[in-house]
Amino acid sequence: MRFTFIFWTSLLVFAFNLLADRVETKDGSIFYGKILEVVDGNLTFETTYSNAINIPLTAILSMSSSSSITVRDEDNQTLSGQSIPLPVEQLNLRDSNQSQNLSFEKIQHLWPASGEDPLIIEEKEYNEGLLMKWKNSLGFDLVGSSGNTDSLGAGFRMDSIYSNNFRELDLFLSYNTQTTNGVNDTDETKGGAEYDSIFHEQLAWYLRSDFEHDTVEQINLRTTTALGLKYRWIEKENYQVSTRFGGALRYEDSTNKTIASKKDPALDLGIEYLHEFNQFMSLQSELSFLPRADDLTDYLLSHDSALVFPISEDKDFSIRSGLSGTYDSIPNEELEKMDMKYYLRVVYDFQ
Fold this sequence. Notes:
Blueprint: H1 2-19, E1 21-25, E2 30-39, E3 42-47, E4 52-56, E5 60-64, E6 69-73, E7 78-84, E8 90-94, E9 99-103, E10 107-112, H2 118-130, E11 133-145, E12 151-163, E13 167-180, E14 183-200, E15 203-214, E16 219-235, E17 239-254, E18 262-278, E19 281-291, E20 299-310, E21 317-328, E22 338-350
């Protein structure tokens, strides 16, 4: 009985290995699984026991495939056939008519014969990246309490982004109001637009303008117009960091007629951060610093940081829990320097 079990187990393992692709490296490691592709001198190989791994072509001793593969060499010639492991340190392709050898270092691209040419895929992705597309989101806040303090707050924010891989136009509009014990302590409207255009690798120029109206803070109109450069330090699918530096013009007009309006040149500094931890949570943060060009102690600091949790399978709906606010180093009389708020927002994304 034991012998029968060992026999059939060995037979199944042997049969599986015949059906699987095989890669042996120069350090003696052997991998069974599926050959996916070769790009930039690395073989992407899906093993039977883990996710896909990357193996440098210079580290491969032999390779065999269970089905036909296609290879493009450094002279842009394509070869097809089934790979066998001999001779070592070469890719040996055989079909019904001939056998062809190619050293691993000369492989430019490799893909399953039943798949699509990586150059065609790359061209499609590039052309797709040139198309300008709209992405929109609409969020609503509603908070309240009763008891020692009776309060009711509501708000909305709408964002529209028109972009491709090289240019982006970002528009937003938001409104927040809150009443505490019958007194209106928040009445804020904000809006703005920003245009970015990449002109050299990760470097882009930007032009942005925003406005704010807040009767509680005695702001009839506060505007900022800025022009400068933005550098994208990290640009990955789930992790992005960028900074900006430019010159700006700050204008502020108060609802208090005893306070004169101000128009000052300023510096525009900022950082944007996005980190998707997993499919269930991400962190988004933006920080802006606007000091007067002739007096750095007179500045406006604003930020918005939030955790985002998708609540639908297609991620159209999400919960945004965050903290936002401004710090005015020289506020109007009888006003606090810090204006901070916590919010919980339901957001709907659409195109």
